[in-house]
Amino acid sequence: MQLAKRTKPLDFKDPFPTITRALIFVLVCLQISCATNIKDSDSVNAFVKKMALSHQFDEVELNKVFEAVEYKEDVIDKISRPAEAMPWYKYRKIFMTDARINGGVKFWQENEAVLAAVGKKTGVPAEIIVAIIGVETLYGQKTGNYRVIDTLSTLSFAYPPRSHFFLGELESYLLLCRDEHLNPLVPIGSYAGAMGAPQFMPSSYTHYAVDYDGDGYRDIWHNNGDIIASVANYFVKHQWQPGQAVAIPVSATGVTYKNALTKGLKPDLRVDQLDLLNLIISRPLPFNTKVKLLAFEQEALGQRSGEELWVGLDNFYVITRYNHSPLYAMAVYQLSQAILNKKGTFP
Questions:
Q1: Both 148 and 219 in a single domain?
Q2: Which of 115, 239, 256, 307 could bridge to 295 as Cys pair (CB 3.0-4.6 Å)?
Q3: Is residue 206 part of a domain?
């Protein structure tokens, strides 16, 4: 990650010295061949004025920032084709690999003290924290290769289906850059603007990032203590239930259960209702426990295709707050269990 940390912030109140502006222009041109500029837009101008009025940004300097911002056509293509749109049996193969499992064990071993301390304080298990970082960025190895301001600006001003959401993220991003002393033209992230090892969106960074070691910075790019504590804090703030299961397999007789495969991810069935659906849960739970019935598509065998049935509990729902997909949450859960099991036998 090429994030400049603890350097002089981009000062939105005082104009850049002429030499600094010239240097930024040269560096940007060398890096991106001065391609399509996103500045020439009424929407951009309106956003700049809003930032000046609401947050006292200097319009002249913010306009200079946007003059260096580049429109990214491939960002639009990628966000229109998310991995979560693929069937479970293909999606699972992306994450349930020896490299990701062994990498998780290694990350756990290297950060055992922090994981233990954070787990004790928050109740979020180490394997869940590790699996999130593993699914998101392969333990910080793949944090993205787009400038965050390019992706957020492209999605804010050139992707109408979600422009409202990304305008909010762009606003949060510029504010955090000012607060954390970061040059907004420098940080690199995903095609959706997610940042650092845990891939926090700017608003998530604002609300959930933690300065674990007390050095005055919430560094989710380089500091594993901050990264681990920030992921745990995200789950705590979304009501993680310590000691509760995440998901449990169920088996079915007949097809009555299909009536309970409803939209949404929040638990909406009591365990005692499973009998009425001819479902058998593989692990006993209190009758009044709320669960969500989930079906995961399996690879076809000959003429037959099938699905794997699970019930998700409150903690499964909490994982979907990180990414609103049952496939994502199941990948995190299954990776966490594989890492936990492997850790006991890892050489």
A1: yes
A2: 307
A3: yes
- Show the tokens assigned to 14: 């005082």
In a domain? residue 338: no
69's tokens? 């911002």
Return the SS3 of 322.
coil
The closest of 225, 222, 223, 217 to 129, measured between CA atoms, is 225
152 and 211 part of one domain: yes
Residue carrying the six token digits 């907004």: 184
What tens digit of pLDDT does each residue of 166-178 get? 999 999 999 999 9
Asked whether residue 341 is domain-assigned, the answer is no
Which ranges constitute the DSSP H helices of 123-201?
A: 126-137, 148-158, 163-179
- Please give the single-letter amino acid code of residue 334: Q
**Cα 249 to chain centroid, rounded:** 26
- Determine the Cα–Cα distance for residues 332 and 330; give it in Å rounded to an integer: 5
pLDDT tens per residue across span 20-56: 443 443 343 433 334 467 877 899 999 999 999 999 9
Q: Give me the active site residues, please.
A: 136
Q: Is residue 323 domain-resident?
A: no
Residues 290/278, Cβ–Cβ less than 8 Å: no
Low-confidence spans in the chain with pLDDT less than 70: 1-36, 301-305, 345-347
